[in-house]
Request: fold
Amino acid sequence: MTFVPLALYHPRYWLIWFFLGIAWLIAQLPLPILWRIGRGLGRVLRRFAHRRRDYAQRNLALCFPKKSDTERESLLHEHFAQLGMSLLEMLAVWFGRATDFTNRLDVTGLEHLQAAQATGKGVIVCVFHSVHMEAMGLLAGSLAPIHPVYRPHENPLLEWFMSRHRSRHTAGAISNRKIKEILRSLHQGKLVWLSPDQRNRGDGIVVPFFGHDTLTHPSIARIARLTNALLIPLFCRLTDQGRYQIDILPVQENFPNDDDALALEQLMQLLEADIAYAPAQYLWVHNRFNL
Reply:
């Protein structure tokens, strides 16, 4: 049993505890009802989250220049609907029953993950930022003992809470600040979840994404090189039938080679191909192109 640190009962956190209680109540609703409410929430976000809407509009314009303005606007509307769905879905991941998700799961390529595990080497499970990423973590954790790497929250209560619940359905979440623990886990032959596709905030290298140069951090390639880990891409999308489809690709040959830029370009090409299946479900609201 995980106990709450006494410091997190301080009055400064009472309002957060109140909202977490409300979130627990909401999460008891059936998943299809949460999705329906979430689509409405997405319309509200599209109207009032001006900066995020601007990021999404510019990202879509850069990545889909051949689409008409009407087509991109429709894609933007659906993206915010999916984003709203994912926010309510996240509550069900944290507070609901795992079977509500695993009973809706279809998987292809699980044999690739099992074969990589059988080698005894560390395995980097490469995932990208879908709006349904919290559900993806739960579902991937139901398939194998994966350690998700995440960016810690600045609020101590939310950091404790999110780390606890992300670890509940996985082999244990690891902060991206604990690089030694990440390396040690891979040296020990464990599976570690890394995501290389968001805008770099420090030093980085330029790789093309949908034909546009983007600064991307090469850590995933360098970690693979340091640990001699295998790399397997994993993709997840929500289908129109309300089921989660996970596709696991084979181990990427010659990754990371000796060139970080080529290694990252290889991954971005895989991401572009997957986005084509469900373009509204990629996380377009972050500032990928540093605009």
The chain has a mean pLDDT of 94. Residues 6-281 form one domain. The radius of gyration is 19 Å.
